[in-house]
Amino acid sequence: MQSVEAFYNQLSNRYTELISRCVPRYDEIFYNLFYYIPDDLEPLQILDLGCGTGNLTAAALQHYPQAEIHALDISADILKECQQRFADKSNVYYHQQDFSDLDFELESFDLIISSIAIHHIPDYEKTDLYDRVHSLLKPGGVFVFADQTQGINEEIYQKHIGRWKEEAFKLGSTEADWQLWMEHQDAHDYHSPVSWHLNQLEQSGFDEVDLIWKNIMWAVMWARK
Ligand SMILES: C[S@@+](CC[C@H](N)C(=O)[O-])C[C@H]1O[C@@H](n2cnc3c(N)ncnc32)[C@H](O)[C@@H]1O
Asked: Which tens digits make up the pLDDT trace of 130-141?
């Protein structure tokens, strides 16, 4: 089976265009992710987990042009696309790292963000990742991320997939695009219910945890240290 790294390496130059035809209300996800960042938080150090070609990194740069933004991805090729996209920015730093092996100083970030990436690791790795994210945030720091989630039972989950297909086709996805995502999903996706994520974030020590936005299977979750 092709690894998630190889999949994104091979997709790197088509990714930005493909994702816009695949994820319903993609812009709204980003809008909400930043809208709920607390007014009293001034993020100077930001980490973007699973940056891909840099769609979320670009939004972070718009909101916080003065911040130091660390864009991290396992795929060298997609990270290269991200690097080319922000070639004129001196405040974006690139890290080819796996979520299971984050190598940063403790308490070095004010804000950790991620979009549609964490579902690529199994639940036991997500648990470790949430512990690690908690340890990398400064006190009062925020972890806010968007991801695909599972329904609380199989029927709801299958209905989510059906609704996703309807919306992806409205956005212009073709049958070939859909097959690509479904094969990718079978090989690399580990969706977990929203309640599972919120519970794990609490277990990792976050003081406040909330679901701030949801549409079909896409959720934006928020946690403050
Ligand atoms: C669907 S893309 C999302 C990219 C971007 N955040 C966006 O919203 O367009 C998921 C990204 O997560 C990365 N990824 C998957 N598993 C990873 C892991 N274990 N460690 C680091 N990055 C990973 C992939 O290489 C890919 O670039």
From this structure: 999 999 999 999
